[in-house]
Design brief:
Length: 399
């Protein structure tokens, strides 16, 4: 008997849940005089009424605002080209979310013999099939958008020139934390969007692709991450605040659930690999010892929370405050530090390498690495006051 053909995993459709049958009834009930909540709720998140700069409502007739509605003419109106691009990015991330959650992805999470794209990386950073598939999904979506001239990815040695008339440049880490997938630990996608530097159009393709990708983070037009966890959350900024949207799997829409995200000015959590304590410089050890004893500027004992997935650690920090950090020269300036620092700053926090504001740094290499500290403004100021917090030696383990 011939076995049926199997659909490739990354092409498998997302099937709506039974909840879809009940949503019309829930929404109708919410409109009655029997129960009229001040705040609509989806999956446990409050969805507040939003009013745009022009006074128009961001919500649709059901009281919900989708990602595309929010950034389109009903909302902040970032322009048609950017709306189209973001729509293709969200589509790619929904495909990746389905792939990550699939019960058949265990073989895709295994390492291959490929070397790390950035060079000099350890085997733990080597591309895996899941990284490669995610990278191809994003590249395909950017090509289909018709709005992108260059894509630079952590999974590629060099930027990819897509089209001469694309308005934007996209930098991305397609699947951050993928080595944790077998343990069902949260993963994420990180992206940043720049305008194409038209003054470079006369240069050879390879050269202008590289220079467009090495823009300072201060020139970002938009940035964001997508967290693949118990919920799929897209957190983004366009330079006027930070917003978070949660994927409604019954409709396939990202719904605004966290309008105007503001990171607390002070938290009570730090996120770092404590196993490296004795390799840290004196300043960082002193800071950690001080805050976890409750002897810092904030007189409460800090707790350690470390997932070892950058997007997940940062998302918790945005919600609760504190600091997420990696003091080693490990994280990439172009793909991780710049987009996430832009997003954190727009939420009222700070991104630093321990000495300098991340967005003030000029990248000189595509896969340039550096220490990264992201978090609450007062916590970051206290950390930096200790001076020596960058770990420049890595005895006993690879970078």
């Amino acid at each position: 008997m011939q076995s049926p053909a199997i659909t490739p995993l990354h092409q498998a459709p997302i099937f709506p849940s039974k909840l879809q049958n009940f949503l019309p009834k829930i929404r109708a009930f919410a409109r009655t005089n029997i129960y009229r909540p001040r705040m609509t709720s989806i999956a446990g998140f409050g969805v507040k009424s939003q009013v745009g700069l022009s006074g128009s409502s961001f919500e649709d007739d059901d009281g919900f605002s989708t990602l595309v509605e929010y950034v389109g003419k009903k909302g902040i109106n970032v322009g048609d080209d950017l709306v189209v691009l973001l729509d293709h990015i969200q589509y790619a991330c929904k495909r990746i979310a389905s792939l990550v959650a699939s019960p058949f992805n265990s073989s895709l999470g295994k390492q291959t013999g490929l070397g790390a794209a950035a060079g000099g990386g350890s085997d733990r950073d080597s591309p895996k099939p899941l990284d490669v598939v995610s990278n191809e999904i994003i590249l395909s979506s950017l090509r289909n958008s018709g709005k992108v001239s260059v894509m630079a990815s952590e999974e590629s040695d060099a930027p990819i020139w897509i089209t001469d008339d694309g308005r934007y440049v996209v930098v991305t880490d397609p699947l951050d934390g993928s080595r944790n997938i077998d343990a069902s630990i949260p993963t994420g996608t990180i992206f940043g969007i720049y305008n194409r530097l038209v003054e470079l159009d006369h240069l050879p393709r390879e050269e202008k692709a590289m220079l467009n990708s090495l823009q300072s983070g201060s020139k970002l037009v938009a940035a964001g991450y997508v967290l693949y966890s118990s919920a799929t959350i897209l957190c983004t900024t366009f330079g006027s605040g930070t917003q978070a949207f949660t994927l409604d799997r019954s409709t396939g829409d990202f719904i605004l659930t966290h309008p105007s995200v503001k990171i607390p000015t002070r938290g009570q959590i730090y996120s770092v690999n404590d196993a490296r304590y004795f390799d840290w410089p004196q300043g960082l050890r002193q800071y950690i010892d001080t805050v976890r004893q409750g002897k810092g500027r904030y007189p409460k004992k800090y707790s350690a929370r470390y997932i070892c997935s950058l997007v997940a650690d940062l998302h918790r920090t945005l919600m609760y405050g504190g600091i997420a950090m990696n003091p080693r020269d490990h994280l990439r300036l172009v793909y991780e530090a710049n987009p996430l620092s832009f997003l954190v700053e727009q939420a009222g926090g700070r991104g630093s390498d321990g000495k300098h504001r991340i967005l003030s740094l000029q990248p000189v290499k595509l896969h340039q690495r550096l220490p990264l500290f992201l978090g609450s403004l007062e916590d970051m100021e206290e950390l930096e006051s200790y001076g020596n917090v960058q770990q420049k030696v890595n005895p006993g383990y690879e970078v």
